[in-house]
Design goal:
Elements (H helix, E strand, L loop, with lengths): L1 H6 L4 H17 L10 H15 L3 H18 L24 H9 L4 H13 L3 H5 L6 E2 L4 E5 L5 E5 L5 H11 L17 H14 L9 H14 L4 H8 L4 H4 L1 H5 L2 H4 L14
Antiparallel strand pairs: 1-2, 2-3
């Protein structure tokens, strides 16, 4: 499985996750050979981790994706159709910071590196893994854009905020990063995503929003929603975010504030309302 994933140029993170999920599945069904595992066994395992470990939709989807890859490309099975196991999509809308909350969040950060990371999450719309692996050579300060190596190694460009350039240059002079813009404790190596998640959560808690589903990814949602509010078309936002399908980007239409703010309820437009 590792060999096939590597040959197909899957990212190290995806390879690690897929292999881990299959190990867990095989350990759960330790009395069965892999070629003997069928649909009902995968369903039983997914029900087990939901009931016993309380896992959410994202974890179940990852198990389904891992099974999908394994039983299509590694050990093809005519009986297993992993897409059947994909959990139904939730209609829960993501949290979004308003602009005042973004300003408040940035204002409580004294650490220059942390402030830059959080500002770039909001200013570029990068994903967590994209931020951690952002390289110095990806920054184009003249064109005010950032080259992003996204999911499935799909390159794209997003916006580089002009007002962050001075801080970025100051940070570069102080820290002198070698390859990655935000290095971890080991020189020349990227900052770990867990470290980023940890300090983002600390600052979110500091402004009173801890434990309310606000995270680094909320800044990405805020980037998209605020662009939409500013009049940027949905297709441009799709390209900036690196979405494969426009349907994924369409969720931000539900979060858009500018159009809802000027709507008038039909009840309020009744001529004799209130008389």
């Amino acid at each position: 499985m590792h060999a096939v994933l590597t040959a197909k140029h899957y990212s190290p993170r995806t390879i690690r996750n897929y292999i881990q999920e299959m190990r867990f599945l095989f350990a759960h069904h330790c009395d069965l050979l892999p070629q003997c595992i069928v649909s009902k066994d995968i369903i039983a395992y997914i029900n087990f981790i939901v009931k016993e470990h309380g896992v959410g939709r994202e974890k179940c989807h990852q198990v389904a994706q891992s099974c999908s890859f394994f039983f299509k490309h590694v050990l093809p099975s005519p009986f297993v159709i992993p897409s059947q196991f994909y959990p139904r999509k939730e209609n829960k809308l993501p949290q979004v910071f308003n602009k005042d909350q973004v300003k408040q969040l940035i204002s409580v950060i004294t650490n220059l590196k942390h402030r830059l990371v959080i500002s770039l999450f909001y200013g570029t719309g990068l994903r967590m893994n994209e931020m951690a692996n952002l390289k110095i050579c990806d920054i184009d300060s003249k064109a005010f854009q950032v080259k992003v190596i996204g999911k499935r190694r799909k390159d794209r460009f997003t916006i580089l905020p002009k007002h962050l350039l001075d801080d970025m240059r100051k940070y570069y002079r102080l820290q002198k990063p070698q390859t990655y813009l935000f290095e971890g404790q080991t020189k020349g190596k990227p900052m770990h995503t867990r470290s980023i998640q940890h300090f983002v959560q600390q600052y979110v808690t500091k402004i009173g929003l801890g434990g309310k589903d606000y995270s680094a990814h909320t800044l990405r949602h805020s980037f998209a929603t605020h662009l939409l509010d500013a009049g940027v078309d949905i297709h441009t936002i799709k390209e900036l975010l690196g979405h494969n399908n426009i349907s994924t980007t369409m969720v931000y239409l539900h979060l858009q504030q500018s159009k809802r703010a000027v709507l008038i309820s039909p009840f309020d437009s009744l001529e004799n309302n209130g008389q």
